[in-house]
Amino acid sequence: MQSVLNTVKGTALNVAEYLTPVLKESKFRETGVLTPEEYVAAGDHLVHHCPTWQWASGDDTKTKPYLPKDKQFLITRNVPCYRRCKQMEYVGEETLVEEESGDGGWVETHQLNDDGTTEVEEKICELTLDENRDEMHTPDSNKSAPGAEDEEEDDDEAIDMDAFEESGMLELVDPSVATTTRKAEADLISRQATDEDGGGAAGGSSDSVLRTRTYDLHITYDKYYQTPRLWVVGYDEQRKPLTVEQMYEDVSQDHAKKTVTMESHPHLPGPNMASVHPCRHADIMKKIIQTVEEGGGELGVHLYLIIFLKFVQTVIPTIEYDFTQNFNMS
Amino acid sequence: MTENILQFAAFESFVCPTFWHKLAELKIEHDRLSDAPKPISGHYTNHKAAGCLLEVDYSAYNSSAQPPKFSHNAVGTIYNKNTIEEFKELDKTSLLSAEGQALLADMTSARVLDNPSLLARFFVLSFADLKCHSYYYWFGFPCPLTHPLQLQSEAVRVKDLQNFAAVAEALRAVPSEAQNFFILYANEELESVEVRSLSAALTNIDNTEAEHYYYCFADPSEYEHPAWLMRNYVAFLLMQCPTLLGKTLKFLGLRYDQQMNVDNSLIWKVVQNDACDLTRIENVKFVGWEPNRNCKMGPRMVSMRDSMDPAKLAENSV
């Protein structure tokens, strides 16, 4: 229901965005919003300090006139995401530790085993592998089946891809082509082999290899809310795009479908993408500015995106973007 | 005998869904019934390379290519046909030849020297079934069929070179937009290492200096074999500088790992003994059609129903 509301709201906001004039004067200090120029300056700062980020120009037909042609939005690609958010939330066992004096216990969330490893982490590994195994047997990822994509759709007439094959073209002998097997596929083959031989006996050598999902993160400028906006596109281990449901597994469960919504990207063609809704960004930013100023410090507008990324991390806690920059609160 | 020839890892196409979305949009709103070939651009990365991929996405249709970070531009053409019959009946061999001849024409003219990314060449033959949201496509990576290269020794890692520190430093200093194809002059006796552009090093090549050349290229292959695009590089070098025929040539496939180190870049020492006259274009044969997932010579198909069919989208949106 929430997503329907979001869709309706999103469409209305598109109209509103069209009518909203471009912010000209800096209101960063008073309200926590950004002008396009400030967004570009903060973006330049981010690109300079975090080399994985870069500017992108997006689709030519969707160029926004209030931003430079080659600096339409920011992008970082192939950010690893090692585990699912659900696992982080449900796997941990909490132990209430009673203090001897009796005034208020505390909660220990990580119990160390004798050998120093945490039980929790091992469980996470097991879960991830099981899930991978399941994913690998879905017909979609089974590369040996041609046209596997349309098998599940009964209303489609089956398409015989063999009919397209050309016979004469292989007659040209070319000794310079290497026969290659991708490492990922080689692993898959060996894993299937161990599954068959060992009858499910765990401990095959390839099992220690953890396959990870990756994410592309985009930061666009939202003209209506006058703040940056984070977009995420996920890919599975085979670089196939994730479905919406799969993507929600990586979003903090408190935020899925509420703060994180599916909307159309302002600079890209194609289906709706997941984004962190920007309606609260300016408020949070304003609070941070106030906190810093109460401590006697001053927050430069060029740090905006670095701080922004720190607070959107709470929404998507599993994506590990490399973050070394710190800023002083006082 | 076959053990000593250099083999190349064939390019594998990787198509982002946004590529099809943009194609559908252009076909409906702009191209309509026109099926004229159109220039597109792709990209490949030599940073933590997986397989040997050539990627295309929505940006392929942009007027100016802006490859993603750590990626390099590839030059391509799309032949989008109007009907499945046209797609099927098109003479694949002559399309490949036409593409290959265009590549050779670029090699003979000075265009490649000015813009080496012309060597990373691809084309797509496609048919968009807009009603069923099915996309039929077949990638080709044209390359003249020349005599195999003799491999002089096993591939060597850059970090095993004696002057590795100097070489690594020089490689790191190459600006990213010039990393796709360049030449490294490394003279161990003079302890001199410097990077040169193709045009600077190859126009009026100095044969005594050429002995110390490493012909470098951004290598998107994860295998022991160099990527497919090195094949065009070799053909171009021998065409541009026929004096290199019969000499040992050192090729350096630049590969970055996670930490942005060049340690695992590979060096192949090869010799081409048999001349191949690529100037008589009509006699040259070409290779490069990408096999499908069954390793047969055929196109691939992808169904975009889940993200394009309005009915499906409505289903998923609630």
Biggest interface, CB < 8 A: A-B, 52 and 62 residues
CATH class of the domain at 2-82 and 213-312 in chain A: Alpha Beta
Overall form of chain B: globular
Provide the helix percentage of chain A: 25-40%
Number of domains of chain B: 2
Mind telling me the CATH class of the largest domain in chain B?
Alpha Beta
Q: From the structure provided, what is the oligomeric state, counting identical versus distinct chains?
A: heterodimer
Tell me the span between the first and last alpha carbons of chain A.
Answer: 43 Å
What is the CATH T-level topology of the domain at 2-82 and 213-312 in chain A?
Yope Regulator, Chain: A
Q: Within the largest sheet of chain A, what's the order of strands?
A: 1-2-5-6-8-7
Strand content of chain A: 5-15%
Provide the structure class of chain A: alpha+beta
**Cα-to-Cα separation, first versus last residue of chain B:** 63 Å
Any idea what the radius of gyration of chain B is?
21 Å
* CATH topology description of the largest domain in chain B: Cytidine Deaminase, domain 2
- Please outline the major beta sheet of chain A: 6 strands, antiparallel
CATH superfamily of the largest domain in chain B: Ubiquitin-like modifier-activating enzyme ATG7 N-terminal domain
Order of secondary-structure elements of chain A: HHHEEHEEHHEEHEEHH
Mean pLDDT of chain B, to the nearest integer, reads 91
Task: Name the CATH architecture of the domain at 2-82 and 213-312 in chain A.
Answer: 2-Layer Sandwich
**Beta strand count of chain A:** 8
